[in-house]
Amino acid sequence: MNPWHLGLIGLGVLNVLLLATHWWGVGNPGERMQEPGLRAEWVKLEKPWVQDQANEASVAPAQAPQPKIDLKAGQAQLEEAIESASNGVFNNQPLGPECRLWGPFLQSDYVRIEEALRGWPGQVSRMERQVPVGYVVYLPKSVVDAGQSMGQLAGKGITDSFYMNTPGPMQGTISLGLFRDRQRASQHQAELRAKGVLGVEIRERLGPTRVFFELRGSPAQMVELQQIYALNPKAELGACPQAQ
Question: What percent of the chain has pLDDT over 90?
Fold first, then answer.
């Protein structure tokens, strides 16, 4: 090999060394990494999660601020709705059967009324009880035993009185008057108290046993009952007492 060929070979090796030094950097590799050509050629590290978050942030619309929940107001509205629903249910319930009381009848009279009610479709209940025929104003036995006497009453100007010795619930009492209605009996009781007579009471005077019919049914059945009563106008047909 002649010297000319050796020179060409040496020159080629020198160019290769210079090119390597230019690409890989003999001085500071970090500075070489910042060059545009090197960044384009460098192997990239893919980070798909970062890309996905960026896409979501660019696509998702802005969310409006959520209103605060008022628990007290919500509870009040719930209770009001429940109460309104309950009232609606109860208001829509059908009315219960109406009630009428027919009487009183003597033992000898009630059979005819019972026969007249035989075809009536409502509920029929027969009952017996004593009814007041008047009221007695009196001094109880306890007051009489405590020392209240007929003489003391006479000294106060009360002469319409007598001692009750007939066996029964009134035995040992002093009667101060008999009256047909409660209002008149109450008025006499007040007059005696004004005269200084203390402990005066009023008691019903019960008569013989009477028969009553308790009748329950719908409004239409009550109209039919009124027609039956028009054909048998005995005693009284009226609303049942509240206790019934």
Answer: 44
Distance of CA 92 to the CA centre of its chain: 15
Residue range 110-137: average pLDDT? Answer: 92
Q: Which residue has the tokens 């929940």?
A: 69
Q: Amino acid letter at 62? A: A
158 vs 183: CA distance, rounded Å: 20
Question: Do the Cβ atoms of 21 and 29 come closer than 8 Å?
Answer: no
Q: Tens digit of pLDDT for each residue in 194-233?
A: 999 999 999 998 888 899 999 999 999 999 999 999 999 9
Q: Determine the longest span between alpha carbons in the chain, in angstroms.
A: 180
Question: Rounded to 5 degrees, what are φ and ψ at 78?
Answer: -65, -45
- Euclidean distance between CA atoms 187 and 183, whole angstroms: 6
Nearest to 171 by CA among 218, 132, 138: 138
Which of 183, 196, 213, 185 is CA-nearest to residue 99?
Answer: 213
Q: What are the start-end ranges of the H helices in the chain?
A: 3-24, 29-33, 36-41, 48-59, 71-91, 110-116, 141-145, 150-155, 182-194, 219-231
Question: 139, exposed or middle or buried, with CB in 10 Å at 0-12, 13-18, 19+?
Answer: buried
Dihedral (CA of 22, 25, 28, 34) sign: positive
Give the residues across from 202 on adjacent strands: 137
Specify burial of residue 96 (Cβ count, 10 A radius: 0-12, 13-18, 19+).
exposed
> 218: which 2 tokens?
């719908």
Give the 3-state secondary structure of residue 199. coil
Report in angstroms the alpha-carbon separations of 141 from 148, 153, 188: 10, 15, 19
What's the rounded Cα separation, in Å, for the pair 105 and 212? 7
